[in-house]
Write the structure tokens for this entry.
Amino acid sequence: MNRAVAIYKEERQMRIQDIIRNQTVVSVDELAALFDVSHVTIRRDLNEMEMKGMVERTHGGAISNYRPQKSLEPDLLARVNVRTDEKQLLSRFTAGQIQQGEVIYLSAGSTMYFLAQELASHLELTVVTNSLIIAAELGKSPGIRVIVLGGILRKDEMALSYIFSHETIKNIHFDKTIIGCRGIHPLYGVTNDNDPSIIGCDSVVLEATKKAIVVADHTKIGFKAKRVLVPIDYVDTLITTSLAPRVVLDAFRDQGVNVITVEV
């Protein structure tokens, strides 16, 4: 199906990447017809995308270079040991953006666990979370008041479902809502692989605040996971590292997201 409406090169390349991930292989002829551009333009796109590590070029087209090991994320305790240095770097930076006396929400997840460790030195802070691991970490600090949102325990994440959380959340004013994710995409928004009852807690908070700070290592940037948490217009700020692909970060900026990159 032809499209007469021109789109930016960056958006076109991201859509090409999505198409290739879904179809595995695609030809220059197909893409030129789909986007209503010349074969030269598509070849240029694919060459640039290969240089950025987005696809693998083939004769007459391209194939996906995405090789998932599992459809779902590993359990939390396993993820804590993956990309530890990058997550700790992001956590130190994010902790520096939080002011004494604020009320913040922290979602479950490995990056949020490292952020909780960094926050332990704060003298006065209220942290709301559904993660028992984060609550236990922050419970070591005498200056931090911890509010745990109740529900049914999911042992793989050591987090509570949102079943008893709605009324509690409605009565809290959050200064900052900070979440981790499995993927964040300019078109599909913030996504996760977790059970809906776990990410549902984040959704309820975000529905109330509509202003999220997403902290994500570079592998999450431009990736779409199994379940959509919230659309991209719920994201106020994205904090990632300089390893993230610049073309995708620029697409977030085009969507009005404040993108902060921490040098690695």
